[in-house]
Design a protein that fits this description.
- By secondary structure, the protein is of the alpha/beta class.
- It contains ten helices and nine strands.
- It folds into two domains: 179 residues, HUPs (Rossmann fold), CATH 3.40.50.620; 93 residues, GMP Synthetase, Chain A, domain 3 (2-Layer Sandwich), CATH 3.30.300.10.
- Helices cover 42% and strands 19% of the residues.
- A five-stranded parallel β-sheet has the order 3-2-1-4-5, with helices on both faces.
- A hairpin with a 7-residue loop joins strand 7 and strand 8.
- The longest helix is centred in the middle third of the chain and has 23 residues.
- The protein starts with a helix and ends in a 13-residue tail after the last strand.
- The structure holds xanthosine-5'-monophosphate (XMP).
Length: 305
């Protein structure tokens, strides 16, 4: 357990000292890590912080509007890059390649925009488990807050590097960040792309986005899982309005975990599952079938890809 007040004071000093009076750029994703980082840096260096939010088009429903609202007090740069990502993902099926393409694209866009700001330093919200997972080589984690170290800057500042996720949440609370951010579930850097098995298409992303919204709406408040989400996992036949339809199969996942290294499925009551299935198939025209994933990690990972 960290002493949050002390941690914040030290982090402010660290950012002040390491940035040498120059501009500092960061990738803000709206997750708890990058939000904590941004708020500490704002206190440390004020307007010398330039947060950049890259809208990949693979974000949750309403995310871009939400981020702009929450961080309206900072000079946030929002980059609308949905088309660039979709073009880069054409024909890409392999999950690892997908992550690489997205990670690479993100870096290039971020570098391009960061250069325009004239910043000398890069601030990152990397936390301790990010390092372990990357070193473990389970899959290439593209963390929106985790840009490569050879990126062209005078230096990199990572004030959260010794913290676990629950400690970051404590710091978020001590900083007075909105409760919704403090409790925010992790969201993978590659976004909804890893929740669409196979090639990423606009149609699939839209189904995944709507289904994720429904799943969060039905589960988050009541069960407070570590994570819950929906993924588009394939095509299956259904009947809607007496017509046979080849529609999307949506998998629902909700897990409890401490640090994402292991996870257990949430034992959702039948009526909740029923409501989720009814809403997904009724509210999303292209969805024909809903399944609930009860596999723990290991052997399954939390995400589908
Ligand atoms: P898995 O699927 O490996 O995920 O069990 C463990 C945790 O990490 C999140 N995750 C990611 N987070 N960039 C991230 O920032 C990524 O590329 C990425 N892939 C998975 C996942 O949502 C879960 O919380």
């Amino acid at each position: 357990m960290v002493n949050t007040e002390k941690f914040i004071a030290n982090a402010i000093e660290e950012i002040k000292e390491k940035s040498c009076g120059k501009k500092v750029v960061m990738a803000l994703s709206g997750g708890v890590d990058s939000s904590v980082c941004a708020e500490i840096a704002r206190r440390a260096i004020g307007d010398r912080l330039v947060p950049i939010y890259v809208d990949t088009g693979l974000m949750r429903k309403g995310e871009t509007e939400r981020i702009n609202m929450v961080f309206s007090g900072m000079n946030l740069l929002t980059i609308d890059a949905g088309k660039e990502f979709m073009d880069a993902l054409k024909g890409v099926i392999d999950p690892e390649k997908k992550r690489k393409v997205i990670g690479e694209k993100f870096i290039r866009i971020f570098e391009r925009e960061a250069r325009k700001t004239g910043a000398s330093y890069l601030l990152q919200g990397t936390i301790y488990p990010d390092i372990i997972e990357s070193e473990g080589g389970i899959k290439s984690h593209h963390n929106v807050g985790g840009l490569p170290y050879d990126i062209d800057f005078e230096g990199i500042i990572e004030p959260l590097i010794d913290l676990y996720k629950d400690e970051v949440r404590d710091v978020a609370k001590a900083l007075g960040l909105p409760e919704e951010i403090q409790r925010r579930m992790p969201f993978p850097g590659p976004g909804l792309a890893v929740r669409c098995i196979g090639e990423v298409t606009e149609e699939k992303v839209e189904v995944a986005r709507e289904a994720n919204f429904i799943v969060e709406d039905e589960i988050v408040e009541k069960y407070k899982p570590w994570q819950c989400f929906a993924a588009v996992i394939g095509l299956g036949t259904g009947v809607k309005g007496d017509v046979r339809l080849l529609g999307w199969i949506v998998a629902v996942r909700a897990v409890y975990s401490r640090d994402a290294m292991t996870a257990d499925p949430v034992e959702l009551p039948w009526d909740v599952l029923n409501r989720i299935a009814s809403r997904i198939t009724a509210e999303i025209p292209g969805a024909s079938r809903v399944v609930y994933d009860i596999t723990p990690k290991p052997p399954a990972t939390i995400e589908y890809e």
